[in-house]
């Protein structure tokens, strides 16, 4: 769902946590709302970061964007410790091209309560874009 708000030129993009319960599902939702008519689909954390820079999909460039993440509490749970642990374990099992030592360190940090969950990583990626305002609902 893409709306241009009435009060200024900010675009509003809605990510609905009720539409997914996994990282792959998040990528599908992000592709649906951010890449509408493009052939390219989001499939990695880096790819998600890339589309937020704009230039393809619904974000044209550095215009002001509001992202509203509905049912973010559900997403925080769905993309929490367990999903993150599986994400890292799958990468370790896959091996190359992944940096196994780095991923093992991230997994160790996670199990010690110091690492970020996938939800926290996604929020950090969005918030790293200064033209984007994120609202968790």
How would you portray this structure in words?
The chain is 46% helix and 15% strand. The model is unreliable at 2-6 (pLDDT under 50). 21% of the residues are buried. Helix 4 (81-94) runs antiparallel to helix 5 (100-111). The two termini are 16 Å apart. It is globular. The chain has 6 helices and 4 strands; from the N terminus they run E-E-H-H-E-H-H-H-H-E. A 4-stranded mixed beta sheet has the order 1-2-3-4, covered by helices on one side.
Note the topology:
Elements: E1 2-4, E2 11-16, H1 23-34, H2 45-52, E3 65-70, H3 72-78, H4 81-94, H5 100-111, H6 118-127, E4 132-136
Parallel strand pairs: 2-3, 3-4
Antiparallel strand pairs: 1-2
SSE class: alpha/beta
Report helical residue fraction: 40-55%
Give the end-to-end Cα distance, rounded to a whole number of Å: 16 Å
Residues in β-strands, percent: 5-15%
> What is the H/E order?
EEHHEHHHHE
Rough outline: globular
Integer average pLDDT: 91
Biggest pleated sheet? 4 strands, mixed
The whole-angstrom Rg is 16 Å
Biggest β-sheet: strands ordered side by side in the sheet: 1-2-3-4
- Specify the number of helices: 6
- Outline the low-pLDDT stretches: 2-6
Number of strands: 4
């Amino acid at each position: 769902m893409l709306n241009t708000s009435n009060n200024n030129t900010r675009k509003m993009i809605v990510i609905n946590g009720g539409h997914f319960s996994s990282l792959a599902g998040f990528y599908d939702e992000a592709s649906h709302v951010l890449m509408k008519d493009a052939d390219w689909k989001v499939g990695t954390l880096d790819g998600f970061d890339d589309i937020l820079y704009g230039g393809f999909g619904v974000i044209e460039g550095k215009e002001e964007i509001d992202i509203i993440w509905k049912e973010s509490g559900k997403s925080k749970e769905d993309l929490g410790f367990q999903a993150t642990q599986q994400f890292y374990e799958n990468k370790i099992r896959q091996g190359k091209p992944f940096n196994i030592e780095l991923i093992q360190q991230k997994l160790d940090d996670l199990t010690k309560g110091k690492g970020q969950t996938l939800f926290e990583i996604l929020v950090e990626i969005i918030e790293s874009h200064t033209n984007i305002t994120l609202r968790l609902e």
